[in-house]
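Exercise 3.2. Students should predict the tertiary structure of the chain below and write it as structure tokens, then compare their answer with the key that follows.

Predict this chain's 3D structure.
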Amino acid sequence: MSATQKIQKYIQKTPHGQPFASSALMQFGTRAAVDQAISRLTTAGKILRITRGIYVRPEKNRFIGLLLPEPFKVAEVIAKKTNEEIQISGAEAARQLGLSTQVPAQPVFLTTGQSRQFNLGSLTVTLKHVSRKKIPPLESKAGIAILALWYLGKNLVTLEVIKKIEQKLTAKEFKAFITSTEYMPIWMSTIITQHKKGSNNA
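Answer key:
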């Protein structure tokens, strides 16, 4: 089986709308063979280039046409390819917790890699560089809460905000949040300490 045939088989098994990195195809042949196969598949409309080194098996809807993958899925593939950490933005974290009603017009994600942008249909997706300390684990609600506080900033984070977060999280999630001090600057851990004291006194 040729490199092109192996790559075509791989593409056929990839779900529609699921982005993938071209580097995942290097197992099937030389760089030249892979590049040639990608070029042919792109020309034939079998795959669609999203940004440098990232492709998707396009999904079409008879009513609205081409369906592009969710921006975060693309960002995740980019992050995995370059060994970066990725997270939603603080603005999105605050929105998810009901601490803000603002919805960013264009998607923004935080990354430990370099800042850059890519287009996804009519959207301009931004990957914004931040330090590793400002990207708590994605899978945890504690991390989402910390991102929200980073976004709101020192002047807007009050005991009332912490109470609102407590109402949004389960007891286990909130405990994880208030004990994740390694991701908090002094001003943030100070307000958490104040909340703990208030709760203990109550």
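Discussion points: Strands lie at 19-21, 48-51, 54-56, 59-61, 65-67, 86-88, 108-111, 116-120, 123-129. The first strand starts at residue 19 and ends at 21.
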